[in-house]
């Protein structure tokens, strides 16, 4: 079995282009399996995986759990809201207690940037970062690029605009790294208050006019406004944000070409995307969800072979 160059998936920054291509090729095989009548394979039958989520999640947690079960792994789910973390237990103690139950791999989401990196220095199990604060969300970026590849044939040479709340998004950073490693051009678009101060230093184009961004790109990856991470007001109102940065059918009809619309979910309908766009033939949002299972199967399968 070909192997990844790293024993953890902490961020896209740690992956080489060859690693990403290996994940994609493995996901292609697993996607074929997911479309069969019997969708389960015994690949990780002797592996126990703990899903350790210190932050709320629906899509990502379900996607990982389904991927693990499709690979026949034993699955342990941990939610901090009902755990001893509420009694003051530390992150390392919590995870070490889980590992004492002979867990081989940890899928972790945490509100603090760098938490999976910190943990990787203290435990022996493979770690998959399922999102750490506003830092990275590597499997989301992988499934996004995989979906572009599936829709347009290749990622190299494509123009991708990431539109919305870049400042608070872990998806944006991982997508920028992944798309650039695969040879795509990247633009970020949003209000000045929602773009990191030094974002241009990452080699991306910066635009504040959403129509110009849409006119430039082949793919628009639209991010939601993360109100739960905002401690202050970054714009006057959701209505005003929607007026200037929301994407609707009328806006798409003004373009002189067709573009692909993506969204990592959950969608704030009527804010960043109107339903007439989210449910249109331009959108591949449900394909992203489907591809998420195949990508996470590929990541887990490949990491299980790296000790």
Provide a descriptive summary of the structure in words.
This protein has 307 residues and is of the alpha/beta class. 38% of the residues lie in helices and 15% in strands. Strands 7-6-5-8-9 form a 5-stranded parallel β-sheet, sandwiched between helices. Strands 2-1-3-4 form a 4-stranded parallel β-sheet. The chain is globular. Residues 228-232 have low confidence and may be disordered.
Features of the shown structure:
five-stranded parallel sheet; alpha/beta; globular; 2 domains; four-stranded parallel sheet; 307 residues; Rossmann fold
Summarize the structure.
With 307 residues, this protein is of the alpha/beta class. It has 11 helices and 9 strands. The chain folds into 2 domains: 12-136 and 291-305, Aspartate/ornithine carbamoyltransferase (Rossmann fold, 3-Layer(aba) Sandwich); 138-288, 3-Layer(aba) Sandwich (Rossmann fold), CATH 3.40.50.
What topology emerges from the helices and strands here?
Layout: H1 17-34, E1 48-53, H2 59-70, E2 74-79, H3 91-99, E3 105-110, H4 115-120, E4 126-132, H5 138-152, E5 159-163, H6 170-181, E6 185-189, E7 205-207, H7 210-216, E8 219-222, H8 238-245, H9 249-253, E9 260-262, H10 275-278, H11 285-304
Parallel strand pairs: 1-2, 1-3, 3-4, 5-6, 5-8, 6-7, 8-9
The fraction of residues in strands falls at 5-15%
Give the averaged pLDDT, no decimals.
90
In DSSP terms, counting alpha (H) and pi (I) runs of 4 or more, how many helices?
Answer: 11
Q: Report the structural category.
A: alpha/beta
CATH architecture of the largest domain: 3-Layer(aba) Sandwich
Low-confidence stretches: 228-232
Number of β-strand runs:
9
User: What is the CATH topology of the largest domain?
Assistant: Rossmann fold
The major pleated sheet works out as: 5 strands, parallel
Q: Residue share in helices? A: 25-40%
Assembly level: single chain
**CATH homology group of the largest domain:** Aspartate/ornithine carbamoyltransferase
């Amino acid at each position: 079995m070909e192997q990844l160059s790293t024993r953890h998936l902490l961020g896209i920054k740690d992956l080489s282009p060859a690693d990403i291509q290996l994940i994609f090729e493995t996901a292609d095989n697993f996607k074929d399996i997911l479309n069969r009548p019997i969708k389960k394979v015994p690949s990780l039958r002797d592996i126990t995986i703990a899903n350790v989520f210190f932050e709320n999640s629906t899509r990502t947690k379900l996607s990982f759990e389904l991927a693990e079960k499709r690979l026949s792994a034993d699955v342990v789910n941990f939610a901090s809201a009902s755990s001893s973390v509420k009694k003051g237990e530390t992150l390392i103690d919590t995870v070490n207690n889980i590992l004492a139950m002979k867990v081989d791999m940890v899928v972790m989401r945490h509100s603090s940037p760098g938490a999976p990196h910190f943990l990787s220095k203290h435990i022996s199990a493979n770690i998959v970062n399922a999102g750490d604060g506003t830092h990275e969300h590597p499997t989301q970026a992988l499934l996004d690029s995989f979906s572009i590849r599936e829709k347009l044939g290749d990622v190299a040479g494509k123009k991708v605009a990431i539109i919305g709340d870049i400042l608070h998004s872990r998806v944006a950073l991982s997508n920028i790294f992944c798309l650039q490693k695969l040879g795509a051009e990247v633009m970020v678009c949003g209000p000045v208050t929602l773009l990191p101060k030094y974002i241009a230093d990452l080699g991306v184009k910066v635009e504040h006019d959403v129509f110009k961004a849409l006119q430039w790109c082949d793919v628009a990856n639209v991010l939601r406004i993360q109100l739960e991470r905002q401690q202050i007001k970054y714009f006057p109102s959701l209505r005003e944000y929607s007026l200037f940065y929301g994407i609707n059918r009328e806006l798409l009809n003004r373009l002189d070409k067709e573009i692909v619309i993506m969204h990592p979910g959950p969608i704030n309908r009527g804010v960043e995307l109107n339903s007439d766009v989210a449910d249109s033939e331009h959108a591949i949002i449900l394909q992203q969800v489907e591809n998420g299972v195949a990508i996470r199967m590929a990541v887990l399968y490949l990491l299980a072979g790296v000790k």
